[in-house]
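Our preliminary data section would be incomplete without showing what the modeling component actually yields. Below, a chain of 369 amino acids is followed by its predicted structure, encoded as tokens that our downstream tools consume directly.
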Amino acid sequence: MNKKKILIVSASFYPENSPRSFRTTELAKEFSRQGHFVMVITPRISEFHDEFEKNNNLIIKDLGLQKWKSIRLKGTGINRLIRRFILRFSKLLFEYPDIQLFWMVKKALENEKDYDLLISIAVPYPVHWGVAASRSEKHSIATTWVADCGDPYVGQENDTFKVPFYFSWVEKWFMRKADFISVPTNGAIAAYFPEFHFKIKVIPQGYRFEDYQFDTSKLNNSRPTFAYAGMFMPGRRDPSEFIQYLNTVDIDFEFHIYTQTPQFVKGINSDLMKKIFIHDPVPRKELMNILSRMDFLVNFENVGNRQKPSKLIDYLILNKPVLSIKTGDLNKNTVNEFLSGNYDCQMLIENPDQYRIENICNKFIELAN
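Predicted structure:
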């Protein structure tokens, strides 16, 4: 394999706990492990990244920190309501505060050149826009630019509001300039404008499976023990119906929830408080160790087929039965079966090797050849 000079641009990186951070970090580590030259442009934190560079034989260039801050939700009553309104619609109408990444990325790329492969990571999408603004015939930066789209933007299905029409122009503009667009699933292709489908390549999220081997030989839970890790969205990835049904179940169990959105976990009565435990998010490796000790794991499905939760790959790596729940269509019989230890109706994820990071990186390298 010819060694490549690779540049990755992302607003999220280790030690941040987010899907885009995991995407960027795993790609950078594996490309370097394969012997390629790797430069990552991201907000640099010396406390973490000095050692990370040495351990993984790569370079991290500072993108800088965003100066415009997100509006904080504080106060009560009408004051809080007004802040929520401003926060929601400043994001929707102007992509605030992430729009500043457009200029930050553009500036960071001014002197970068002669790469074989440039990968930009979204969300947020202004990362792609900044690359598009910087890249030209005279300043191509890299022979091949792949715009990696973890979630759709204009064509998303899981937000209450659609983005304004003028962002369609922006999306088409950057996609015209990109050589390839990578998406995590086949279903995601429909979320993008048809004229760019010929550029789209399906490259899933990937991990090094060997990093997540845990000893579960002594697993012996005294009652059905299960967990969910991720965000909730009312009316979409919504736990309400599932929680309501658990209120009625005359079975002892233990349900652990790790989430940034605990406000959407409602309807827990006094009895359930002894069975359902809500936790703050924890670092990925720690979380995976915790999940490995569960009898089964829970997935709350997104609306439509365009976005699949990346946590399903985590569940696959751990080789745990998955109870998949569709909002508004709870199968109570399946829930009962899982609680009794019958996993015949578990969600199946095909071809585990497609999520191995070495295979993911090879797909990107093929685009640069």
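The chain has two domains: 5-65+95-203, 209-354. The chain has a mean pLDDT of 90. Preliminary results of this kind motivate Aim 1 of the renewal.
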